[in-house]
Write a structure and sequence with these properties.
It contains 15 helices and 16 strands. It is α/β, with parallel strands linked by helices and 486 residues long. It has one domain: Glycosidases (TIM Barrel). The strands form five sheets. An eight-stranded parallel β-barrel has the order 1-2-3-4-5-7-13-14, surrounded by five helices. A two-stranded parallel sheet has the order 6-8. Helix 14 links the parallel strand 13 and strand 14. The longest helix is centred in the middle third of the chain and has 29 residues. The chain is globular, with a radius of gyration of 21 Å.
Length: 486
């Protein structure tokens, strides 16, 4: 008889937790031998609805490298997780985290990116972080490249535009795989790899003065180098630590057709294919045919070494992770545009928006989970989802963030529905369990956390950590394995 039952809740081993990035929380940018990264040369934005993370030139980078302060570069200071990690991990444990996603800063291990010998002080720092997580029974989920690389590789070889960066990156990955063997069960290669189509922040390549065609050429070539490096890292991990798993990471940009007009439906379909192309390569091990036509139509040539395609095919990732913040609308004749977390498209009149103009669409999360499960049949992991908001600290040092609870509740409800649909979902690490420096604008006032950090946009404050109302709500969610969302 055909099976007619379905899951009524989250799996017992569901991985609840939170996610951060080194360049947004660690600080200590020039401590213990660390080198400067691409994230630390991008100035704070002047308009919170216009992301400026790719507005760099060779001259602006050299000026930033010569600047010994963090005044214009807030990611250099983060929220000082480097010195507060024990306190912060204790708070994560109090919430009941099963997993904590963080990134290893390549430049802490290899300050210039291409040294032969690693920086022991950098390796030792992550030893301490990982050991502290294990002390509380929290599993590490480590991102190998989260929007940063040593700035030296940009200045000497234009980042991932150079094939030489593959070898440098895989020397780094081999080093950390061996160092943390048996201690890190889950790894991710490149954070939101598809955003490399936007440029510098992800590729480390300077292309701001190029034509649109030349920008596309250099960005897709850089991304090919990352695909190869990701496959090699997968091979390395499977050989060094066979019990560990490695995944890809996509900025999921679900788009809807603006009208039932077949032209709009087809335009939305193409946008979705272009978004999922990256996961196709990393999870299926091959370039999809639709992108071959896209490259030909746009006069883009991907230069490959003779064995590149074989490497991609032989070493696909074990699971697929993605971020989910918003959806957009695609029309053949585009109207008013919205912009958020790298997703650009038409405004959906049925959705609300955050203070930063990001449209809020919980049902879209279920839609994308169902579609990605049907497409790949590999375990899925929602590793970013959250609400950036302007939190108000009351006179008695409280933060009543019911709006954040409401946002997360609605998204978790839709994840539960997707599990009932049959999706194999590994876990959920909401973005920014502790307030951090915004990636897109380098603001501190764009807060995501369950934990309030006393620091303003100018870097002033005590750095004291305070629990918001959402802290206790998420604690209850984890304790009940998602059954109690009230």
């Amino acid at each position: 008889m055909y099976k007619t039952t379905y899951p009524k809740g989250f799996p017992k081993d569901f991985l609840w937790g939170g996610a951060t990035a080194a360049n947004q929380v660690e600080g200590a940018w020039n401590v213990d031998g660390k080198g400067i990264t691409t994230a630390e040369v991008v100035e704070k934005a002047t308009d919170r609805k216009k992301m400026s993370m790719d507005a760099v030139t060779t001259d602006s980078i050299k000026a930033a490298v010569a600047d010994p302060t963090d005044t214009r570069y807030p990611k250099r200071r983060g929220v000082d997780f480097y010195h507060h990690y024990k306190e912060d991990i204790k708070l994560f444990a109090e919430m009941g985290f099963k997993v904590y996603r963080f990134s290893i800063a390549w430049s802490r291990i290899f300050p210039k990116g291409d040294e032969q010998q690693p920086n022991e002080a950098g390796l030792a720092f992550y030893d301490r972080v990982i050991d502290e997580l294990h002390r509380y029974g929290i599993k590490p989920l480590v991102t190998l490249s989260h929007y940063e690389m040593p700035i030296n590789l940009t200045l000497t070889q234009n980042g991932w535009a150079s094939r030489a960066t593959i070898a440098a990156f895989n020397h780094f990955t081999e080093t950390v795989f061996k160092r943390y063997k048996g201690k890190v069960p889950y790894w991710l290669t490149f954070n939101e790899i598809n955003t490399g189509t936007w440029g510098f922040h992800e590729t480390g390549a300077i292309d701001t003065t190029m034509s649109k065609h030349d920008q596309m050429q250099i960005r897709y070539q850089a991304l090919h180098h990352q695909f190869v490096a990701s496959a090699i890292a997968t091979k390395q991990l499977h050989e060094i630590d066979p019990d560990a798993k490695i995944g890809s990471m996509l900025a999921r940009m679900q788009t809807y057709p603006g009208t039932p007009n077949p032209v709009d439906v087809q335009a939305a379909q193409l946008e979705d294919e272009k978004n999922l192309f990256f996961t196709d390569v990393q999870a299926r091990g091959e370039y999809p045919e639709v992108m071959n036509r896209f490259f030909a139509d746009n006069d883009i040539e991907i230069k490959m070494a003779p064995d590149d395609q074989a490497i991609l095919a032989k070493y696909p990732v074990d699971f697929i992770s993605f971020s989910y913040y918003m959806t957009t609308v695609t029309k053949a004749d585009a109207g008013e545009q919205v912009n958020g977390n790298m997703a650009t498209g038409g405004r959906n009149p049925y959705l609300e928006e955050s203070d930063w103009g990001w449209q809020i669409d919980p049902v879209g999360l279920r839609i994308t989970l169902d579609e990605m499960w049907d497409r790949y049949r590999k375990p899925l992991f929602v590793v970013e989802n959250g609400l950036g908001a302007v939190d108000q600290l009351t006179a008695d040092h409280q933060v009543h963030d019911d709006y954040r609870i409401d946002y997360l509740r609605k998204h978790i409800q839709q994840m539960r529905e997707a599990v009932a649909d049959g999706v194999q979902l590994m876990g959920y690490t909401m973005w920014g369990p502790i307030d951090l420096i915004s990636f897109s604008t380098s603001e501190m006032s764009k807060r995501y956390g369950f934990i309030y950090v006393d620091q303003d946009d100018a870097g002033k404050g005590s750095l004291k950590r305070l629990k918001k109302d959402s802290f206790y709500w998420y604690q209850k969610v984890i304790k009940t394995n998602g059954d109690d969302l009230a």
